[in-house]
Amino acid sequence: MQPALSDDGSSDPLHTPEPARDKPADPKVSARYSNLSRRDTSPEMELRRALWRIGLRYRVQVDGCFWHGCPEHGTMPGRNSEWWRWKIARNQARDRDTDEKLNALGWTVIHIWEHEDSDDAAGLVAHAVTAATKGHQRATEARTE
């Protein structure tokens, strides 16, 4: 199967057709994957609590090492491996696309992996907020001078 190509001829995982896959061998495993939380996961809640402790209130999404292809901890299942490569590549492409859209709207996007310490991650967010706030204050001061 050939991957879909973007306008510049490169592979485009967002538009690559879904490959065929075997039916799950164990319906319990399939049900478990289907019921996984998509938001308010344990790592997200830990990070939000860490942000709360330092006085910040933000909605966060923490990238799961498996689902988003962490370079340190991402794994690839042996069963249906072509489908899983497609799925994870598509997740990564969607992440990049979302990042571009948010950046275009003026958002600062910070990716946090589920394996990262929540207090360290909160520090990264706090640093970004401080930098953005100072930049906004300088821009405001420059406009009023």
Question: What can be said about the biggest beta sheet?
Answer: none
Structural class computed from helices and strand pairing:
mainly alpha
| Strand residue content | under 5%
Number of E-state strands:
0
Termini separation comes to 60 Å
Whole-angstrom Rg:
19 Å
The low-confidence runs, each spanning 5 or more residues with pLDDT under 50, are: 1-7
Helicity level, as a percent range?
40-55%
Tally of individual helices: 4
Integer average pLDDT: 83
Morphology? globular
Short description:
The chain has helices at 27-34, 42-53, 81-104, 118-144. The protein has 145 residues and is mainly alpha-helical.
Question: How is this structure best described in words?
Answer:
The structure is a single chain. The protein contains 4 helices and no strands. Helix 2 (42-53) packs across helix 4. With 145 residues, it is mainly alpha-helical.
Features:
145 residues, mainly alpha, single chain, 0% strand
